[in-house]
């Protein structure tokens, strides 16, 4: 299992500013500064450019620890991992030296090709809008999908050259600041726009960790709230029990919540190790997708048990449990964790259909 004691100083900063991040619809500056000083933004910066370039399991573990304190800020750190991984693999040579001049710079991005590129003599003219770009207000670079002459491509663009449209108004993961980025006939140098093939499955597993890690961490954070309640003099209302732990039903619910979170974490780390071990066989893809989707569902179910234990007071705006609940509800429904598509893929494989 994950050692959640690491990075405690960083976690304390994130916890202290989690509410501010949610209210501002973007990560708190203090939280981002703590991540930068802790080397989090360099997790997937290439080693030759001063970064760590850690593997899938290390990313999952680090983001889970951070998500226990502030899921939104951990999510932004995960987006940085994905965007830097893409940039390192797509833009070699001179562009890479420019992109990774600061190994601790925050990157954001979107793989959705929701823009058009028009080649011109000076480079590529880019026009379009990318939605749900986490951390975009605070990032230095954006790695963005687009179509150039009908071909899927990726562009590396300074965020300062783009317009941020503050469109992120969600019930959960509010602090991710996943607003929209807009380009209007923006000239991008030709060496920073590259046609690419579909992302390999092994890479997609890494990108799934950047989503699932903060969700599992959020479920751990919710458990912290409930554990504190059990350690207090709080008792089940309308009962003869003098404290929560005296109730067999409450103990059962607590055990089930812990089991579900443990199972989600174990599944996540198992998939991460499979990714680190090399490209999983095609026959393993449906199973791994099911494990990812199942882990997200386990986190949701666990938090529901915790809300049952806490009762209606868990929904007070001053209670962090309701924030963890909303963050898990939104984060676990990311396309990387889509349960019905995972079942669809597994069903096709079992039926022998391609």
TrEMBL record:
Segments crossing the lipid bilayer: none
Alphabetical keyword list: Oxidoreductase
* Domain (Acyl-CoA dehydrogenase C-terminal) ranges: 213-338
List, alphabetically, the GO terms of the cellular component aspect. cytoplasm
Citing just one GO molecular function, the answer is: acyl-CoA dehydrogenase activity
Q: Which InterPro entries match?
A: Acyl-CoA_dehydrogenase (IPR050741), Acyl-CoA_DH_C (IPR013107), Acyl-CoA_Oxase/DH_mid-dom_sf (IPR046373), AcylCo_DH-like_C (IPR036250), AcylCoA_DH/ox_N_sf (IPR037069), AcylCoA_DH/oxidase_NM_dom_sf (IPR009100)
GO BP terms in the entry: fatty acid beta-oxidation using acyl-CoA dehydrogenase
Q: What is this protein called?
A: Alkylation response protein AidB-like acyl-CoA dehydrogenase
